[in-house]
Amino acid sequence: MDLDDVWVYLGDFGRYQTVAFILITLVGTWLPAWQIFGIIFTTDQPPFHCRASPGFTLEESVPRMVDQNESFAECLMYAVEKGENGTSVINTSIQVECTNGYEFVTLFDENTIVMELDLVCKDNILPSTAQSILFFGVLTGAFVFGQLSDLIGRKTVLLTAVFLQAIAGIIIYFIYVYHWFVVLFFFIGMFEQGMNLTEFVLIMEMFSPKKRTIAGCINGIAWGVGVTLLAAIAYFLRDWRKMQLAISLPCLIAIPLWFILYESVRWLLSKGRNKESFKILNKIARVNNISPPADGFVLTLDDKTIRESAPNDVTSSPSSAAPLVVDKEKTYTVIDIFRSWIVFKNLVIMSLSWFVNSMVYYGVSLYSSNLAGDKYLNFFLLSVVEIPGYVVTMFTMMWWGRRPSLVLFHILAGAACILTACLPRDTGDGSGFAIPLIIPAMFGKFCITCSFSVAFLYGTEIFPTPVRNIGFGIASICGRVGSILAPFIIYLEEYSSYLPLNIFGGLSLIAGVLVVLLPETRNKPLPETMEDAEMLGKTRQIKRNNMSGGVAEDVKPSNGIFNVALEDRDDCL
Questions:
Q1: Helices and strands (H, E) in the chain, number of each type
Q2: pTM here?
Q3: Which of 223, 206, 141 is nearest to 3 (CA)?
């Protein structure tokens, strides 16, 4: 049996895999989602204006702006001078910067770091800078933890990042200085990526190809649910410090999980740690109430056989002249990707897809923020739209495939953005055109969520095991660059209202066309070597009655919560 057949033998969603999957998914989606989106509420800027001069009313001290609401000026006030008799008088002909601080008009009785540190007017760039530093931390984490996960293990990196996230999040509760605030948020972004990237690779390596689609899509749905739950957390707490503490303390779950979760068997085999791999497989078999093979597990890896009775020995089949799948002395780095033209090409296209997905995802979110009303409700609605997107991709990827799904959603998202950009902002009588603008924008958000979901799963399947996290990390880095650039693209609206969404839409269309050049990975074994990855587009699909390791239909165990209800069938394709 190859390792994919072993997971089928052990029940795929058997007892251990189901419990481990739930724990890893919740830890790797809810906790990082809360951290990455929590800064939206932390750095939110309520309406504000200059505080009135002592002895004068607000009407006397602060001019009104020339707008529809005639609200008070935010950063200017009338100068106060000494009169002839020594009393203070208001000089309405001279306007100066706020000299008495600021007064915030809290619509929801909230407290943000902007209000605490007066990060407005001449310091109004600082909240955006904090957000950029957070995403720079995310970018750094994608590279650092992608490499570390391939070097020292998935479980080790995941739980270490979760624990460090708890420490950083708790410390920031006590911070009252801006520069320390942004330093800690850099590390929070860094640890977030260590959690989210590594957990996804870990669960992808826990299942056979037929269950990876289901696992990946449920993981995406969990992310959407986690983002949605943040709206409730922020709404009920309404203080950024309390919210930060509430979303950081659960990260301490990393301590007990260290003794519950096992390391990735696929990663252990890639490092030549065969004895540990067989030990974990036997433990999973006992938890799942499945009897191990009488002669122990025998793994076939690229025509090489590894026996549990002699786990560090490898027997070659008579007709095999191929090298061993795993060279435990070899440490793979990013350089190995550049040595293979096919793997490098796949990396470039997948990275472009991630770049566009992330840019459009955050860009459309920023564009949709003009929805009027309760900011917590608006955030909730923008989050909820992601959940059906993950459900839709689960079926399109199972029934149609990864590549056509990614092409379709890129093109639909691009078309929706361009359509939104081309719609007029006002009707002929001057009334607003907001609702017709929001509908295609929200459809674009739905489609780009679907596209991102496909790219997330696709990115773990297209790279071989020795460089899977490296390749996945590089693609994620490109995605984070896209998210950092999104606000600057939106800023171009100052010059032309048509530019931002046309840029988003055009890039999404280009990405959709280039994805056609990628190999399909649906129902195919995860590539174990660079050679496997180069042959990925030429290998046949895995059939139910003809698994590559020879597990027949009648020997597949039926235990497990999801195995019957969520069967990924070939006859549905």
A1: 21, 7
A2: 0.76
A3: 206
Cα(538)–Cα(124) distance, integer angstroms: 55
Q: How far apart are CA 332 and CA 151, in angstroms?
A: 8
**Helix ranges (DSSP H) in 118-208:** 125-152, 154-172, 178-204
- Coil vs helix vs strand at 32: helix
Contact 465, 267 (CB under 8 A): yes
Long-range CB contact pairs, 366-370, < 8 A, 24+ = 366/486, 366/487, 366/490, 367/420, 367/441, 367/490, 367/500, 367/501, 368/438, 368/441, 368/442, 368/445, 370/434
Q: Which of 232, 526, 227 lies closest to 390 in space, CA to CA? A: 227
Residue 392: closest CA among 371, 413, 422: 413
Average pLDDT of span 494-510:
86
Name which of 2-6, 317-321, 357-361 the model is least confident about: 317-321
Unique residue bearing structure tokens 């195919």: 524
Q: Which range has highest mean pLDDT (398-407, 437-446, 479-488)? A: 398-407
Query: Which runs of consecutive H residues, i.e. helices, occur in 173-208?
Result: 178-204
- % pLDDT > 70, the chain: 83
332 pLDDT higher than 50: yes
pLDDT(116) > 70: yes
Quote the DSSP letter at residue 104: E
User: Residue type for 178, please?
Assistant: Y
| Residues 380, 441: Cα–Cα separation, whole Å | 16
Structure tokens given for 271: 């490092």
Q: Read off the tokens for 304.
A: 């090489």
Taking residues 127-139, report their average pLDDT: 84
- 78-100 burial code (b ≥16 CB/10 A, e <16): bbbeeeeeeeeebeeeeeeebee
Q: Which residue has the higher pLDDT, 461 or 187?
A: 187
DSSP 8-state secondary structure symbol assigned to residue 73: P
- Whether residue 289 contacts residue 11, with contact meaning beta carbons closer than 8 Å, is answered with no
* Assigned fold of 332-539: Growth Hormone; Chain: A; (1.20.1250)
Contact present, 279 and 9 (Cβ < 8 Å): no
Q: How far is CA 503 from the centre of its chain?
A: 22
Question: What pLDDT is stored for residue 556 in this prediction?
Answer: 39
Q: Domain residues of the chain, as ranges?
A: 47-55+72-105, 332-539
How far is the C-alpha of 237 from the C-alpha of 32, rounded, in Å?
19
Read off φ and ψ for residue 308, nearest 5 degrees: -65, -30
> 425 in helix, strand or coil?
coil
DSSP code of 252?
G
